[in-house]
């Protein structure tokens, strides 16, 4: 089944999941979220792909959040189901066995910010504008942003971001830890592709295991985490030594 709001590409063991509906601003409608889930599932099952990149490149926005025009017609039950749908996408990204890079090519607002936070690594263009503007229109995110943003930037910065509803620049986002890398617009996409290819060149099982252990660090105590790391490292070493016994 073809995608209406996405374009998929593969190069150098990297799967590119590009949002784009022929408009300037990529909105996270019900259809778009469902397509993202389907496309992500396809890429996770594709043995030729080791790393996944989500972006709105070459458009002006990464994602500007939920489709407010669509949401105006929601009943309270519809709003709940929409929040659950978005949360299921972000959980799918976080539990994906492959690294997922968010390439923030432009405006990143509301649910778009939540989408970015679900990614393992966030790379931003220097013209980035990122915000959570829900308070301005009388809503909060239903996509777990109030839970995840404090974990990434700290509680005080998260309060400021939510309560002011103001956009932040790429340099401000980098300072807060909301993004991990920033590149000038002219270099942005080549640098994203180069970075993604570097990661994708590593063994898929190692990348998957590293992601699993790193994500678990927030949910389990230090002693248990160290034991998990040792066990998984032993499993990886056994696999590696069987296929390539020479260090």
UniProtKB/TrEMBL annotation:
Gene3D superfamilies: 2-enoyl-CoA Hydratase, Chain A, domain 1. It comes from the Bacteria. Belongs to the enoyl-CoA hydratase/isomerase family. It holds the Pfam family ECH_1. This is Enoyl-CoA hydratase/isomerase family protein.
